[in-house]
């Protein structure tokens, strides 16, 4: 984009509460596919390279502003006053930015509740605006059911006359299928003139930004650019709409991965967020949820009924009916079923965390196995070791989390308890039921003596007549 074509400012409107969400947090901080509405819109707008990126806030303004700054530090926050309406929000923004904007340029204005708004749609709008040399351009789309949207009213020549909000529309106007998406491009001079004369003479008593288009029309033509993908401009006002949009988006994500060589047996029950990466010939079985920055290498098999959160899965690994969070799984590792890997684990190639195993900050060496019914926390296990079922590394003393070090080639008997901090050398064998409290050198065998006592022909006291059943 040349300097002459540069976008002078982008104004994102995020002042509303979003009451239909029935939520304690602002609507724009709700998420779709792992990122908030606001984050998604800000990213799409920022890719156009505006000289000024501004955000208008009001409801829980500091909370929204804090989130916005975490997404993009260069954002300029503008507070809307008590006068309601999108038109008033733009008035506040222009007043706050007047010293930076000057008198000429192009301004993009967009709502913040369209989580699938993308760079392609916005760039198409900007290119259309410049090619038509209109004073203002509105982004529109056609809907089978336009309920709730402002209608685009055109004259006999097809030019935009005005936008009529649902509550102010006549019966004839309500039948119009072309709707306003709440995304606009204005020449700055036209916008300054159009925004100055707004009033609140409407059903809702608000300053409508849509009214500025009528004023802009008196200064020149107002164009309309139809979004090529209706899904990209679909707004979210309540949880029902959010679920519908999330499902439609997820279906596209699954289809994209399948076309790239990933097997997804049941896209209807598989959820994949946008930042997930999946290698060719990987298989995703039904009931899987892939979140965050998860990466899955070639030929891995995930599922069924598995959740991965910021996990890194190696080639040909197998993760079944498990939850893996912020952990690295090496090549040909087997996880599950019913395994919970909390953050901080690193399982090397060929290792295993079997059924009903929980791990946290554990490092498991190549070919080492924790087959079942164990808790391994704050532990390092070397190569080629085997941990018997029911083993626990007791890492917490009530104040500190302590480390357990287990060497390579170790055979841990069933039902062992390692009381950290403790270190066990290489090629050690531990007896079943052992409690390991002290350092064990290499090539040793260690066990805890536990005397077994037996009372023959024993019966409960009440059977022996020592007490009545009512006294039990």
Automatic annotation (TrEMBL):
Its cofactor is Mg(2+). Keywords: Acyltransferase, Cell shape, Cell wall biogenesis/degradation, Cytoplasm, Magnesium, Metal-binding, Multifunctional enzyme, Nucleotidyltransferase, Peptidoglycan synthesis, Repeat, Transferase. Homotrimer. It is an enzyme of class 2 (transferase). The gene is glmU. This is Bifunctional protein GlmU. NCBIfam families: glmU, PRK14352.1. Residues 261-472 are annotated as: N-acetyltransferase. Acetyl-CoA binds at residues 395-396, 432. CDD domains: GT2_GlmU_N_bac (cd02540), LbH_GlmU_C (cd03353). One of its GO terms (cellular component) is membrane. In the N-terminal section; belongs to the N-acetylglucosamine-1-phosphate uridyltransferase family. In the C-terminal section; belongs to the transferase hexapeptide repeat family. Its EC number is 2.7.7.23, 2.3.1.157. InterPro entries: Bifunctional_GlmU, GlmU-like, GlmU_C_LbH, MobA-like_NTP_Trfase, Nucleotide-diphossugar_trans, Trimer_LpxA-like_sf. Its main location: cytoplasm. Pathway: Bacterial outer membrane biogenesis; LPS lipid A biosynthesis; Nucleotide-sugar biosynthesis; UDP-N-acetyl-alpha-D-glucosamine biosynthesis; UDP-N-acetyl-alpha-D-glucosamine from N-acetyl-alpha-D-glucosamine 1-phosphate: step 1/1; Nucleotide-sugar biosynthesis; UDP-N-acetyl-alpha-D-glucosamine biosynthesis; N-acetyl-alpha-D-glucosamine 1-phosphate from alpha-D-glucosamine 6-phosphate (route II): step 2/2. GO terms for biological process: cell morphogenesis; cell wall organization; lipid A biosynthetic process; peptidoglycan biosynthetic process; regulation of cell shape; UDP-N-acetylglucosamine biosynthetic process. UDP-N-acetyl-alpha-D-glucosamine binds at residues 13-16, 27, 80, 85-86, 150, 165, 180, 237, 342, 360, 375, 386. Binds 1 Mg(2+) ion per subunit. GO terms for molecular function: glucosamine-1-phosphate N-acetyltransferase activity; magnesium ion binding; UDP-N-acetylglucosamine diphosphorylase activity. It catalyses: N-acetyl-alpha-D-glucosamine 1-phosphate + UTP + H(+) = UDP-N-acetyl-alpha-D-glucosamine + diphosphate; alpha-D-glucosamine 1-phosphate + acetyl-CoA = N-acetyl-alpha-D-glucosamine 1-phosphate + CoA + H(+). Catalyzes the last two sequential reactions in the de novo biosynthetic pathway for UDP-N-acetylglucosamine (UDP-GlcNAc). The C-terminal domain catalyzes the transfer of acetyl group from acetyl coenzyme A to glucosamine-1-phosphate (GlcN-1-P) to produce N-acetylglucosamine-1-phosphate (GlcNAc-1-P), which is converted into UDP-GlcNAc by the transfer of uridine 5-monophosphate (from uridine 5-triphosphate), a reaction catalyzed by the N-terminal domain. The active site is at 372 (proton acceptor). Residues 240-260 are annotated as: Linker. Pfam families: NTP_transf_3. Mg(2+) binds at residues 113, 237. It is found in: Cytoplasm. It comes from Bifidobacterium xylocopae.
């Amino acid at each position: 984009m040349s300097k002459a074509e540069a976008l002078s400012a982008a104004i994102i409107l995020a002042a509303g509460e979003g009451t239909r969400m029935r939520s304690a947090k602002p609507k724009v901080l709700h998420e779709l596919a792992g990122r908030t509405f606001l984050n998604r819109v800000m990213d799409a707008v920022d890719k156009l390279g505006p000289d000024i990126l501004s955000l208008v806030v009001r409801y829980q303004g500091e909370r929204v502003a804090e989130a916005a700054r975490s997404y993009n530090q260069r954002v300029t926050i503008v507070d809307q006053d008590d006068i309601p309406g999108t038109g008033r929000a733009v008035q506040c923004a222009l007043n706050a930015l007047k010293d930076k904007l000057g008198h000429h340029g192009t301004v993009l204005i967009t709502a913040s509740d369209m989580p699938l708004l993308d760079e392609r749609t916005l760039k198409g709008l900007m290119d259309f605006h410049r090619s038509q040399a209109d004073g203002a351009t509105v982004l529109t789309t056609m809907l089978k059911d336009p309920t709730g949207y402002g209608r685009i009213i055109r004259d006999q020549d097809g030019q935009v006359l005005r936008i009529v909000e649902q509550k102010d529309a006549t019966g004839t106007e309500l039948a119009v299928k072309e709707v306003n998406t709440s995304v606009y491009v204005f020449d700055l001079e036209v916008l300054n003139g159009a925004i100055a004369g707004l009033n609140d003479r409407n059903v809702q008593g608000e300053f409508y930004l849509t009214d500025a288009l009528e004023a802009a029309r008196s200064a020149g033509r107002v164009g309309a650019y139809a979004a090529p993908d209706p899904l990209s401009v679909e707004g979210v006002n309540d949880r029902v709409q959010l679920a519908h949009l999330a499902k439609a988006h997820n279906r596209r994500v699954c289809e994209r991965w399948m076309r790239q060589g990933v097997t997804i047996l049941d896209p209807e029950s598989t959820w994949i967020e946008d930042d997930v990466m999946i290698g060719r010939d990987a298989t995703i079985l039904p009931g899987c949820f892939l979140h965050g920055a998860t990466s899955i290498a070639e030929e891995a098999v995930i599922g069924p009924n598995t959740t991965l959160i910021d996990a890194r899965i190696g080639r040909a690994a197998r993760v079944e009916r498990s939850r893996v969070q912020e952990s690295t799984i090496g090549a040909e590792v087997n996880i599950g079923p019913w395994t919970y890997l909390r953050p901080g684990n690193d399982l090397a190639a060929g290792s295993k965390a079997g059924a009903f195993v929980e791990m946290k900050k554990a490092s498991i060496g190549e070919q080492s196995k924790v087959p079942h019914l164990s808790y391994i926390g704050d532990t390092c296990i070397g190569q080629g070791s085997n941990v018997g079922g029911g083993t626990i590394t007791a890492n917490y003393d009530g104040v500190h989390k302590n480390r357990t070090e287990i060497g390579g080639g170790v055979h841990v008997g069933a039902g062992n308890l390692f009381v950290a901090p403790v270190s066990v050398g290489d090629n050690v064998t531990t007896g079943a039921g052992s409690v390991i409290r002290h350092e064990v050198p290499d090539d040793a065998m260690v066990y805890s003596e536990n005397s077994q006592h037996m009372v023959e022909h024993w019966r409960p006291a009440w059977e022996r007549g020592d007490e009545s059943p009512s006294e039990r």
